[in-house]
């Protein structure tokens, strides 16, 4: 297996879409073609040269940004210590409002689940909200992973961590377990066996439409973003949030704490 194939697997573990992965691979191949160097010899000067070449080709700044992000992801995967700080990557310091999930959205979503007497989806919604776990982690949970006040979560790289069960989450888990019919070991199951990522996404988007919420922003990863942002608002330090979210790098946690443009404007206007 070559490095690009290993990188594809790594991206899938990060829950990147097939479209995003394909774009990363195209960008990486172009990068290697332009610098004409073996991967192990890549230096920061090569990144700068690559950016200059893209600029000469009159690519839009947004396109250059995306390509540089692809290369940065690849080098991070390779664990190559190249500092991108002086390689300017234009970034918005906020998230578009229409892409951001809010607590109000979650409650509207949960209300639709209640109206449908869907205890399983209620448990999924509030587990994502109150634990911030990845969808892959949620789908791999076993009934026996719940004990006392914690859930044993199998994270990325087969690393395990204990996640606390907040009091607000417990009633939804207990209610679901009372009606759960499948005798398999996985916690969240369906009529045909274990739940899949696609099934969860389809259910959430269906309920989002019924609740009058933009379905594009109702996906499991946005619950994780909302979880981290809520903890920031509660005053928890980033290193603590990183531990709770299972982030190996605190810089990953920083990404999850960006505000929307509307939230930034409200903060500025409140001064």
TrEMBL record:
PROSITE patterns linked: CB (PS51900), TYR_RECOMBINASE (PS51898)
Domain named Core-binding (CB): residues: 1-79
Occurrences of domain Tyr recombinase (ranges): 96-269
Keyword annotations: DNA integration, DNA recombination, DNA-binding
Annotated function: Site-specific tyrosine recombinase, which acts by catalyzing the cutting and rejoining of the recombining DNA molecules.
Similarity remark: Belongs to the 'phage' integrase family.
Protein name as it appears in the record: Integrase
């Amino acid at each position: 297996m070559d490095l690009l194939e290993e990188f594809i697997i790594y991206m899938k573990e990060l829950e990147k879409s097939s479209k995003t992965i394909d774009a990363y691979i195209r960008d990486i191949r172009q990068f290697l073609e332009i610098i004409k160097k073996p991967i192990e010899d890549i230096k920061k000067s090569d990144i700068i040269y690559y950016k200059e070449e893209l600029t000469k080709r009159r690519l839009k700044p947004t396109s250059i940004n995306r390509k540089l992000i692809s290369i940065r992801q690849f080098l991070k995967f390779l664990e190559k210590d190249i500092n991108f700080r002086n390689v300017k990557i234009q970034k918005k310091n906020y998230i578009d409002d229409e892409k951001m999930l809010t607590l109000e959205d979650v409650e509207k979503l949960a209300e639709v689940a209640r109206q449908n007497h869907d205890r399983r989806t209620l448990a999924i919604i509030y587990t994502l909200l109150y634990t911030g776990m990845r969808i892959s982690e949620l789908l791999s949970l076993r009934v026996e992973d719940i004990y006392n006040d914690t859930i044993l979560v199998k994270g990325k790289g087969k690393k395990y961590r204990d996640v606390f069960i907040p009091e607000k989450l417990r009633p939804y888990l207990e209610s679901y377990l009372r009606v759960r019919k499948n005798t398999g070991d996985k916690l969240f199951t369906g009529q045909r066996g274990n739940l899949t990522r696609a099934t969860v996404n389809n259910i959430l988007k269906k309920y989002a439409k019924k609740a009058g919420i933009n379905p594009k922003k109702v996906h499991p990863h946005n619950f994780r973003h909302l979880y981290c942002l809520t903890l920031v608002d509660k005053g928890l330090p980033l290193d603590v949030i990183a531990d709770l979210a299972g982030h190996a790098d605190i810089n990953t946690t920083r990404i999850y704490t960006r505000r929307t443009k509307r939230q930034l404007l409200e903060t500025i206007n409140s001064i």
